[in-house]
């Protein structure tokens, strides 16, 4: 039976479009490409320096969507082919970024260039060619909550007005300049302001996405297995690496920071709604997160330890966590967001989207993937004698 014609939220038929996806080879990009290939008629021009996370979508030629996804190995810093791809597409999605906190204070210039300078031509080509842009920013543009400046024991800290982060109301509050951690968030803030100005002055049709800690399979890398041994990925991969190696999980400054985590598969649903409902998404900035999944980093470590024990069948360590200073773990210039709870009003109103997956469930499916993918390789790596110097 022919599948029913797909319609948008207002009942209009959805026409097949061509999407230029920059950064398609990354964590979010790979899941978005999977969704677009499996559930839509759209075509993807996948632009990235790497394609290992989307190779399963590109080969073999017998895949049902073959011909609808093309990989272009391009570094957008310096490649004249970029404008041509943007002109070929109906929509450009820009995911490209250095977005691992360990880089922000140690590679601040690369971080600023990647998140601001390198995005400038993408915005320019979209605006000059009247092409729609979905630009990926970050929840980190909010920085710290207003409540974090109140006395520690102030009851006002419990008032949502002091911590709920709202796209069209909350300020962006960063640390001082020598806290170079904020190089990333500040670069993201300025590119948001440039996109917004292109919309206001030149009519660019844009949507800005502020992801709130999206996690799931294929996020970052496991150091020493599919990434550099000395690499420091984001917390999911750090903790997964510790669990896979039977090491205690390191809690930076005691793991007191709070985060809300959303399952990548829930978040991708929100992005697909933005893609296929331009009339509802254009001109908006969207928080995309799960306010129901808030934990401290310490609680995340405890939950991941429990879930990993269940999926691997291995007992947890007697002492599953150790505290480390941020200076020791990240080096000079680190600082942190205290709390990140997204206000969901705008995305609910415009797109009717809400996340579905609990933190326990998303950790169970993600750690099952991590164990299945890496446990054997880690066992081999650990059993190999260290080459004598
Ligand atoms: N994952 C999250 O929870 C999260 C949270 C906040 C913001 N974001 C934002 O979402 C976007 C995607 O994040 P992700 O988690 O998929 O990260 P990722 O690092 O997995 O993916 C980024 C991709 O961009 C590519 N890239 C970087 N610079 C490039 C260049 N010059 N030319 C071509 N390709 C380049 C990288 O090779 C990588 O594949 C980023 O802009 C990030 O700031 C993600
Ligand atoms: O081994 C570890 C690793 C990290 N932490 C602490 O966990 C918190 C979260 O860290 P992380 O996931 O690396 O990143 P952030 O949430 O701080 O910022 C990211 O969020 C969005 C994005 O923009 C892109 O993904 C990025 O900036 C943090 O408090 C670490 O200190 C730990 O204790 N142990």
UniProtKB/TrEMBL annotation:
GO terms for cellular component: cytoplasm. It catalyses: UDP-alpha-D-glucuronate + H(+) = UDP-alpha-D-apiose + CO2; UDP-alpha-D-glucuronate + H(+) = UDP-alpha-D-xylose + CO2. Its EC number is 4.1.1.35. It is found in: Cytoplasm. Keywords: Cell wall biogenesis/degradation, Cytoplasm, Lyase, NAD. GO terms for molecular function: identical protein binding; protein heterodimerization activity; UDP-D-apiose synthase activity; UDP-glucuronate decarboxylase activity. Residues 19-289 form the NAD-dependent epimerase/dehydratase domain. GO terms for biological process: cell wall organization; UDP-D-apiose biosynthetic process. CDD domains: Arna_like_SDR_e (cd05257). Its cofactor is NAD(+). InterPro entries: Arna-like_SDR_e, Epimerase_deHydtase, Lipid_A_modif_metabolic_enz, NAD(P)-bd_dom_sf. Coiled coil: none annotated. Its main location: cytoplasm. Belongs to the NAD(P)-dependent epimerase/dehydratase family. This is UDP-glucuronate decarboxylase. It comes from Actinidia chinensis var. chinensis (Chinese soft-hair kiwi).
